[in-house]
Amino acid sequence: MASTVPFSPAKVQMLKATNCHGHAAFGSCFAVPRTGPKQRSLAVRVSSEQEAAAAVRAPSGRSIEECEADAVAGRFPAPAAFVRPKAPDGTPEIRPLDMAKRPRRNRRSPALRAAFQETTISPANLVLPLFIHEGEEDAPIGAMPGCFRLGWQHGLLDEVYKARDVGVNSFVLFPKVPDALKSPTGVEAYNDNGLVPRTIRLLKDKFPDIIVYTDVALDPYSSDGHDGIVREDGVILNDETVYQLCKQAVSQARAGADVVSPSDMMDGRVGAIRSALDAEGFNDVSIMSYTAKYASSFYGPFREALDSNPRFGDKKTYQMNPANYREALLETAADEAEGADILLVKPGLPYLDIIRLLRDNSALPIAAYQVSSLPGP
């Protein structure tokens, strides 16, 4: 039966490129390019190792012209007979189906499957959330075993170094702000010397080539724990909040942020932030909008990490209703029109249908936030 036999110096004397001007030869001057003096293994289909050994001929020393003359005259050894691999006994003999398209052709070998793979996930696709605080020591997060609030000057740098070592180069910052700095209007959010801007500057100094994402929302800075300014009757003020978010985004861009990420779900905030960034000369800072952010109990551990639980009520007047599917299309259209560069769905795993919906209806990159209380896929 025919087989594929590897040739190596241990089995068969390899052909040295002494004929045909620097090419290895098989049979009568069959040209195989060589990359250097090191001999390379070949694999040929033959009926047996003995026949393979007999088929190898020593170099003849002929010139290129002589080799070409052989080619013109057709003086080549007869090719080995093709033997089709046998099917197991009992396989029915049939006429092949009359099919012009056979998708399995592109799956028949690992090399072909790799060549035509549509989706590739690598560490370069990941963004690592980093929880930071003012302390020097890392502080464990009770609701997320194994995760820590990182000291912004020490533990943070170690974490980024380790992540880069495995190929992760994108990071998003989430601050745990001291209670004394929180206020009803979240003014600490745009303090140019606040925790986040200081951290951005440090990261960009130590790791200039990383991508720094930031969170644009008031809840870590609000004494009420909401993403926006709360009126005395409990209403979240939209336009006044957007005004604060614009100042926050500009402050982050000024510190060196590459991508600002409004997670607040206020109406019109993407367009307003885009205009504010452009007006300050930050035309190259991207916006990743939390386009479809659904109200969810999955956010509990995350809010504990930032100490940003709402002091009263919930966030259902601005975060989306989990029962709404088509509403995501409205948010997508608005964010695209207002200048978003990336669209994000949160939570990720429970809303795979929404990720697919956005992918089918937008040419922008689609991101998903796998929140802290969900298992990995």
From TrEMBL:
EC number, as in UniProt: 4.2.1.24
An annotated Gene Ontology molecular function: porphobilinogen synthase activity
Enzyme class: lyase
Catalysed conversion reaction: 2 5-aminolevulinate = porphobilinogen + 2 H2O + H(+)
This protein's record includes keyword Protein transport: no
Pathway the protein contributes to: Porphyrin-containing compound metabolism; protoporphyrin-IX biosynthesis; coproporphyrinogen-III from 5-aminolevulinate: step 1/4
SMART domains, alphabetized: ALAD
Cofactor(s) required, per the database record: Mg(2+)
Subcellular location: Plastid, Chloroplast
Residue numbers spanned by region Disordered: 87-108
Annotated Gene Ontology cellular component terms: chloroplast; cytosol
Source organism superkingdom: Eukaryota
Gene3D superfamilies membership: Aldolase class I
Keywords: Allosteric enzyme, Chlorophyll biosynthesis, Chloroplast, Heme biosynthesis, Lyase, Magnesium, Metal-binding, Plastid, Porphyrin biosynthesis, Transit peptide
Any one biological process term the GO annotation gives: heme biosynthetic process
Annotated function: Catalyzes an early step in the biosynthesis of tetrapyrroles. Binds two molecules of 5-aminolevulinate per subunit, each at a distinct site, and catalyzes their condensation to form porphobilinogen.
Oligomer and partners: Homooctamer.
PANTHER family: DELTA-AMINOLEVULINIC ACID DEHYDRATASE (PTHR11458:SF0)
Similarity annotation: Belongs to the ALAD family.
Name the UniProt record assigns to this protein: Delta-aminolevulinic acid dehydratase
Source organism: Triticum turgidum subsp. durum (Durum wheat)
